Amino acid sequence: MNLLLAVDVPPISNVTIWGSGPLGFNKTAAIYLFAALATILLFAFGTRRKDALVPSGLLQNTAESGVGFVRNQIIMQTMGTDGLRYLPYLTALFFFIFFSNITEIIPGVQFPANARFGMPLVLALATWVIYNVVGVAKQGPLHYLKNSVIPPGVPKAILPLVMIIELVSTFIVRPFSLMVRLFANMLAGHLILVTFAALSAALFALKPTVVIMPFSFALLVAMTGFEILVSFLQAFIFTILTAVYIDSSMHPAH
Amino acid sequence: MVLLHLLLAQAAADPTKGLTAIGRGIVYGGAAIGPGIGIGLVVGNAITAMARQPESAGTVRTTMFLGIAFTEALALFGFVLAFIISG
Q1: pLDDT tens for each residue of A108-134
Q2: What is the CATH number of the domain that holds B29?
Q3: Which of A2, A81, A98, A164 is the most core-located residue (most Cβ within 10 A)?
Q4: Interface predicted TM-score (ipTM) of this complex, two decimals
Q5: A181–B65 CB contact, under 8 Å
């Protein structure tokens, strides 16, 4: 009976309050520490054997295929060859987000750190700063502003309306939606897993309903598999959108 | 049945709490309509493009994920708003 109440959704304050332990260190911070260390160690040890022509070992294979994936699937698809100077940042971003998402399905941890919106906000603001700085540096402040708010080929009559929409969309909605997309996807996935796990336990505890427990449990297993895909996809989408935004600052539409 | 009893008991104790829950449901449900149609259009047309021209599947897939990401942002705003609503 008490198990059913475990499905109760926590209030919004649980999402915004950071840390309850000493110095605000809690599970979320521990997962971020793990993700940062895992990213650093992967590339520190995975890329050390420079002389090896054929990659060998788990670390080197992961590091090299990760760099290759970000280079071919993200940078070459969006920015082209001038974007290759952002390869280190985007690779680190991809692996950091992926490592802090994948803890969602690791038994014993089972919490995606990005379901609290502190770090997605910081990462989105980092993207915002990068694409604005790149835009100002490449095009000059006035040209950058003009290219951002005036899309080519718009009739003069609706230009004022379009300018306001583009201004809000480029400078406010972009970082906000980056943050919300990562945070809400991970929170939603985590809530789905929690709901089906608590439902399985509750159905198991209530004797007459135990016959339908396997269905709930099967869906829990299926959703866990789906969340692996979501963890990867959200890291990919955050990175590729960062690349698209930097590209829109580097190569404005004419 | 048990859940229904619990809900009814809660509604009897505090009628506004039930209204908040209904409001949350309406907010998320309403926010999911448009993006649901939009993602259907994006993915459907991407599949059509891939079936017509399988050699361009890689490019189409990347663009499809971008389109999905932009479209689903609205549904996620609704999801977050449903949490923010408090009775």
Answers
A1: 888 888 988 889 999 999 999 999 999
A2: 1.20.20.10
A3: A98
A4: 0.73
A5: no
